[in-house]
Specification:
Actin, Chain A, domain 4; 3 domains; single chain; Nucleotidyltransferase, domain 5; 396 residues; 14 helices; 34% helix
């Protein structure tokens, strides 16, 4: 029987059969300024000639799946002929859900998977649990690990002991990639150019030029210098979607510090925004969000665990999710944790080579596990016992 692994994130869906490679596909629909009436789904984004002013229709709001119509259309597209050609009657699915998901959302998901698509069997699990499974598989001698998953809507911190999640230690910070992009849009719109409708373009700017500062105040001082002394400043060439299809950062040696560029390129000049935006992950209070930053939340989470386990958590911190890809993220987190944690305990933070697909890879490993058949709910089980059997089996 084929097993399909779907890490159903709020921004991208990571999907693939357990014997193949993963595909990362936008988990939403789009409408473009030029063709308002046509809706594009998932990876049809590539067909849009002019993605400026792109309007996103997202199935997730604040990290929870609320728009089932959009989610169904995305799934229809993913499971359909163009993509994975799923034979539902012979396929088992591993699908992710957020921590502390609402019962109503879980029941809707059970119904859609079993009654509409009619999968042979299903396993609904947290993405962090798959990441932990991946980590323990690679490090069999370790007993504990702490998964830090910083995604589109939230950042979750979840301790695991021997693949079991410790619910009392799970923390959530309401800061994710969406908030960072929106904040960057506001800063640029206020200082330079109105870009509030350009989510797609500014998200790309964020990924291309932002980084996590190791010494925030020192970088702030550099960002205030004039001319070539300002080593933080970068010029970003915005796409016009005819000759420039994708925005890019001008090489430092080509930057003009006095006067204008001769070419007709549209330029964004970025200085302290480059590190002030990702800084929100470490100090949300900078923009008035009354919450802990990631380092404090990790310490808080570890301190809620039994004392003899705490050293193990500090040594096995695993980073997943798109925000961990900012240059300097891992080093800064390790340095901040070092100053907050007890001095006699070693601190070790691991950034996998592909933190976005780390939990999907964990799902792939789990589906090859000899106990996999014990974990899933089959369609017969579901038809006989309804939601009750899913509740009983999936809260692992």
């Amino acid at each position: 029987m084929a097993t399909l692994v779907l890490d159903n994130g709020a921004y991208t869906a990571k999907i693939g059969y357990n014997h193949e490679k993963v595909s990362v596909i936008p988990n939403c629909q789009f409408r473009s300024k030029t063709s308002r009436l046509k809706t594009f789904t998932a990876n049809q984004l590539d067909e849009i000639k002019d993605p400026s002013g792109l309007f996103y229709i997202l199935p997730f709001q604040k990290g929870y799946l609320v728009n089932w119509d959009v989610q169904r259309k995305v799934w229809d597209h993913l499971f359909g002929k163009e993509m994975f050609k799923v034979e539902f009657a012979d396929t088992s699915i591993v699908i992710t859900e957020p921590y502390f998901n609402f019962t109503s959302i879980q029941e809707s998901m059970n119904e859609i998977l079993f009654e509409e698509y009619q999968f042979q069997s299903a396993l609904r699990i947290n993405a962090g649990s798959l990441s932990a499974h991946h980590y323990f598989h690679m490090n069999p001698s370790q007993l504990c690990c702490l998964v830090v998953d910083s995604g589109f809507s939230f950042t979750h911190i979840a301790p695991y002991c021997r693949s079991r999640k410790m619910n009392e230690g799970i923390s959530r910070i309401n800061v994710g990639g969406k908030l960072l992009t929106n904040h960057l849009k506001e800063i640029i719109s206020y200082r330079q150019l109105h870009v509030m409708d350009e989510t797609h373009v500014i998200n790309q700017v964020k990924e291309d030029v932002c980084y996590v500062s190791q010494e925030f105040y020192k970088d702030m001082e550099i960002a205030q210098l004039k001319g070539e002394e300002n080593t933080v400043m970068r010029d970003y060439v915005l796409p016009d979607f005819s000759s420039i299809k994708k925005g890019f950062c001008k090489p430092r040696e080509e930057m003009v510090f006095t006067g204008k560029y001769k070419t007709g390129e549209q330029i964004l000049r970025l200085a302290n925004e480059r590190f002030a935006v990702p800084e929100m992950l470490f100090h949300p209070s900078d923009i008035g969000i009354q919450e802990m930053g990631i380092p404090e939340a990790i310490v808080h989470s570890i301190q809620s665990m039994p004392e003899e386990m705490q050293p193990h958590f500090y040594q096995n911190i695993v980073l997943t999710g798109g925000n961990t890809l900012f240059p300097g993220f891992r080093e800064r987190l390790e340095a901040d944790l070092r100053s907050l944690s007890p001095s006699h305990l070693p601190v070790s933070v691991l950034l996998p080579t592909n933190p976005i697909c780390y939990s999907w890879e964990g799902g792939k490993l789990l589906s090859h596990n000899p106990d996999y058949d014990e974990m899933v709910v089959t369609r017969e089980d579901y038809e006989e016992n309804g939601h009750f059997i899913c509740e009983e089996k999936f809260d692992i």
